[in-house]
Write a structure and sequence with these properties.
30 strands; five-stranded parallel β-sheet; about 500 residues; 12 helices
């Protein structure tokens, strides 16, 4: 054991620990610098350096380190490397420090990365790791037999005009081969063993990992009503779902869709454009309630009705009737709606069972911090399956969007590579229905004021949502410019409030 001066622990601390010794202090820079600089260059087991962005500690850190090591309020791994020092294994805080000042970075690990899931987030983690210089083995494990592919077109163009599957692929087979990414497709992970640091596949094989990433996405939310297992009842989450639906549509005239969200209305638009009779059952008082404001909901409700869609609000399905095959949908109001096809589009749930079984904390999604790390420092999660803290919105969020999958995946890759990037996005979403493009920036669910910009009758307008005077969300219909400006404006206004709170 190395000899060192015992320094008493104080409430606000900077500390360093490794298997050989531990110390902590918050008092004087001259006590900190010799220990930090002595430990970091040392070979052998990785060390942990506890660092806070709490302003008083920032000032201590600035005095403790040479200028080229700490040039900003948080440690800079690039400058540490330039000095020939070993990047620290973890930046974080001891218990008792306000959580809003936490900053974590994990040292690049020598060993393989295993990514569970093969969607947009999984693909982006692999791409960003290779772009960032990760040279160790990497595997993507996907239950479907297809290369990683984009899912938004499934309820839009791929459903309306079936194309070759290759058009959905994010990258061709040759890309993954050239990047030396092993694709384990058509199989799934049965269990993750954190103690042994490996995952077991459903075929019995085991893959060891140094870094594990869950990118498991979501599944269609099941309805607990009789008859959901009858032939002709569908959900729409993957390529095979679309194939089964398209096959049966050839002989179907009447379509009942349970759910008036993005997928429900997108499919309604496709089905109505093909001349089918379409009924949408929405349990809430308006369509798109979870994602858009009243003005936007009313516009899309009216547009679909004008196209001939029968939209029934405040109506819940009670049962799906028929024999072996669906015949009708019975509502709680005792109405029987004839149906050849029933699509259940009542939302999605996070695929967090595998992580929960491994002892990872979950709550309607895998819980991660702003660096996409779970409560296990070697395990990360990205995309629709995660729930993360958002200082910008003052609560934890679980987002289902391409933007979230891509951007959070980049942050996870940065963490694995040893860089600090905090994820707190301005979310954005889009939906294509008929010749309408709805683009949403931000989250409007707790706004106290809304303003319509443009001409609703001309089908080109935006709706701005504010809370306490600041812009928090914008719905834009056929107005890409308003959407792009909104993303920048929301980021600026919410960041200004966030900085004011922290100062």
């Amino acid at each position: 054991m190395k000899n060192h001066k015992q320094i008493p622990k104080l409430p606000w601390i900077i500390g360093v620990s490794c298997p050989e010794f531990t110390f902590s202090t918050a008092s004087r820079a001259r006590d900190i610098a010799p220990f930090i600089l002595a430990i970091l260059p040392a070979p052998g087991p990785s060390c942990t350096y506890m660092y806070t962005q709490w302003p008083p500690i920032q000032r201590v850190a600035r005095r403790a380190f040479p200028p080229d090591v700490v040039k900003r309020p948080k440690p800079n791994v690039h400058h540490l490397s330039r000095r020939g020092l070993r990047p620290p294994a973890c930046f974080g805080l001891q218990q008792g420090t306000p959580s809003k000042y936490v900053s974590q970075v994990s040292k690049p690990m020598s060993g393989s990365a295993v990514i569970v899931g093969a969607g947009q987030g999984a693909a982006q983690v692999a791409i960003s790791l290779r772009q960032g210089g990760f040279r160790d083995p990497m595997a993507i494990i996907g239950a479907e037999p297809y290369l990683p592919y984009q899912r938004p077109p499934l309820s839009k163009k791929f459903l309306s005009a079936p194309q070759t599957i290759e058009n959905l692929f994010l990258r061709p087979q040759a890309f993954w081969r050239d990047q030396d990414v092993t694709l384990q497709l058509g199989t799934a992970v049965a269990a993750a063993d954190r103690r042994r640091r490996c995952v077991t596949l459903t075929d019995g094989r085991e893959l060891a990992y140094a870094s594990l990433v869950f990118a498991t996405g979501t599944s269609a939310r099941a309805l607990a009503i009789p008859g959901v297992d009858r032939r002709g009842v569908h959900s729409l989450r993957n390529i095979e779902d679309v194939r089964r639906l398209r096959t049966e549509l050839d002989s179907a005239r009447r379509v009942v869709i349970i759910g008036g969200g993005y997928i429900g209305l997108e499919v309604a638009a496709v089905m109505r454009s093909e001349g089918r009779d379409v009924t949408v059952l929405e349990a809430e008082e308006r369509v798109l309630k979870r994602v858009a404001g009243k003005t936007t909901s009313a516009f899309f409700d009216g547009f679909h009705r004008d196209k001939g869609v029968d939209i029934r609000l405040n109506v819940r399905a009670a049962a799906i009737a028929g024999g072996e095959r669906v015949r009708s949908v019975r509502t709680l109001q005792q109405q029987d709606l004839p149906a050849d096809i029933v699509l259940i589009a009542a939302g999605a749930r996070a695929n967090d069972e595998l992580a929960a079984a491994a002892g990872i904390r979950c709550r309607d999604g895998i819980l991660v911090d702003q660096t996409a790390r779970t409560d296990d420092p070697d395990i990360y999660a990205v995309g629709d399956c995660t729930r993360f803290p958002s200082p910008r919105y003052g609560r934890s969020l679980r987002l289902e969007s391409v933007q979230n999958a891509i951007d959070q995946a980049k942050v996870a890759a940065a963490s694995i590579l040893g860089r600090t990037e905090h994820y707190d996005p301005v979310p954005w979403f889009w939906s294509d229905q008929y010749d309408l493009k709805l683009q949403i920036a931000g989250l409007a669910d707790d706004h106290d004021c809304e303003q319509v910009i443009g001409d609703v009758a001309a089908r080109r307008f935006s709706v701005e949502y504010r809370k306490s005077g600041r812009l928090i969300a914008v719905d834009a219909v056929n107005d890409a410019r308003a959407h792009m400006m909104a993303r920048r404006r929301i980021a600026e206004e919410t960041a200004a409030v966030e900085m004011a709170i922290e100062s």
